[in-house]
Write a structure and sequence with these properties.
heterodimer, A: about 140 residues, alpha+beta, five-stranded mixed sheet, 5 strands, about 30% helix, about 30% strand, B: about 140 residues, 3 helices
Chain lengths: ~140, ~140
């Protein structure tokens, strides 16, 4: 088994707000992230796939296919978007880095052929990242 | 859905690697430059990884304000701009980065209960790093 990781970047805005909380609760729990006009980040994404090395090609996965899938399923949908207002997953879920990692996994997992998705890592800043391994 | 959240922190501290259980010659052989009696310093990068089921109402594994507050109060304020050798956890332990990992892991394990502690990782320089997952981890 060999693990291969591909990186990408996207920029997006978001804010944290749960309509079931009162205004005070939203402010207390989410702090600055509750500003309804949103704020942005340069996100870095690492997608790790795993598989056996194909004896003919020497590849775990066709990198071109992986790159195209990441572009089509993730970057085209998220890059330069306001996540709360433009990305369907976040109409009902709060676009935290945790939920972003889960949403990216759910977008990629059914689309990848050959290799199996192992980990999605999303950096919100260089000092904060979330890993999701598809665990329930 | 279970996710793993990692936060990075930085602090600067000095230390000297010297074990009273070894002779002076053995200390020099084991620790080299790090045995210099006056000590030396590093900019340490600390990574704390916690895990848990993402809370439906907040979208979070744990609130970063709580983790940041705990690390600030219990770790950074204790270690930043200090000589590690002079601090109680290193009265009898050599302040290697391995031991620093274990000390910081224990502080988090005992005091931070808002999420499950997975791992503590330290970068002592850009060229080396150390991880501690606790004693009971099963390596897959």
């Amino acid at each position: 088994m060999v693990y291969l990781t591909r990186k990408a970047e996207f920029s997006a805005s978001h804010y944290y707000h749960n309509p079931k909380f009162t205004a005070e609760e939203n402010q207390r729990i989410f702090g600055k992230c509750n500003n309804p006009n949103g704020h942005g980040h340069n996100y870095a994404l690492e997608v790790t796939v795993k598989g056996d090395v194909d004896p003919r090609s020497g590849f775990v996965v066709d990198l071109k296919q992986l790159k195209e899938t990441m572009s089509r399923e993730v970057l085209d949908a998220l890059d330069h978007r306001f996540l709360n207002k433009e990305v369907p997953e976040f109409f009902t879920r709060i676009p935290t880095t945790e939920n972003l990692a889960i949403a990216i996994w759910q977008r990629l997992s059914p689309k990848l052929k050959a290799a199996q998705l192992h980990r999605v890592r999303v950096y919100e800043t260089p000092d904060l990242f979330v890993d999701f391994y598809g665990e329930a | 859905m279970k996710a793993y959240l990692t936060r990075r922190y930085m602090f600067s501290a000095s230390h000297r690697l010297h074990s009273d259980a070894m002779s002076d010659a053995e200390n020099v052989a084991a620790y080299g430059k790090c045995n210099n009696p006056y000590g030396h310093g590093h900019n340490y990068t600390l990574e704390v990884t916690v895990s848990g089921v993402v809370d439906h109402s907040t979208g979070m594994v744990c609130n970063l304000v709580d983790l940041d507050g705990f690390v600030q109060r219990e770790i950074l304020e204790r270690f930043d701009h200090q000589n590690l050798n002079m601090l109680p956890p290193f009265a009898e332990n050599v302040p290697t980065t391995e031991n620093l990992c274990v000390v910081v892991y224990d502080i988090l394990q005992r005091g931070f209960h808002n999420a499950h502690l997975e791992k503590v990782r330290f970068e002592e320089t850009m060229m080396n790093s150390f991880e501690y997952w606790g004693e009971n981890r099963v390596i897959e």
